[in-house]
């Protein structure tokens, strides 16, 4: 199974490299005013991908952090609280 995962990622890397090689052309971005920026297509796609991926990743990390804090707080409260009394068997024997 690990072999298939490796083959899959190698195939994805080859496809990305082939796409980048075939589309290595300049694109002019018209920014505000008279400012223009020339950038290669694969670089532009990488930047756009990262701009979309980063907020999602940050939200996921924040949720994991919150979940871990909750679990740790529950574990601390569980360890620090004494168990409820089961029954005083010694005191019942002494009375009888």
Characterization of the model:
There is one protein chain. The protein has 96 residues and is mainly α. It has one domain. Helix content is 71%, strand content 10%. It is built from three helices and two strands. It has helices at 2-22, 41-80, 89-95, and strands at 26-30, 36-40. A two-stranded antiparallel sheet has the order 1-2.
Q: Could you give the order of the helices and strands? A: HEEHH
Number of strands: 2
Count of helical segments?
3
Please, how many domains?
A: 1
Question: What percentage of the residues does DSSP assign to strands (E)?
Answer: 5-15%
Ends apart, CA distance between termini? 68 Å
Structural class comes to mainly alpha
The geometry reads as elongated
The residue ranges in which pLDDT falls below 50 over 5 or more consecutive positions are none
Helical fraction equals over 70%
**Mean pLDDT, nearest integer?**
88
Please summarize the sheet with the most strands: 2 strands, antiparallel
Radius of gyration, Cα only, in angstroms?
30 Å
- The order of strands across the largest sheet is 1-2
């Amino acid at each position: 199974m690990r072999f298939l995962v490796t083959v899959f990622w190698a195939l994805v890397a080859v496809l990305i490299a082939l796409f980048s090689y075939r589309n290595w052309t300049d694109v002019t971005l018209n920014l505000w005013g008279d400012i223009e920026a020339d950038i290669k297509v694969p670089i532009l796609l990488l930047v756009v991908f990262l701009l979309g991926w980063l907020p999602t990743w940050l939200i996921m990390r924040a949720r994991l952090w919150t979940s871990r804090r909750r679990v740790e707080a529950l574990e601390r409260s569980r360890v620090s609280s004494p168990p409820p009394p089961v029954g005083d068997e010694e005191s019942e024997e002494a009375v009888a």
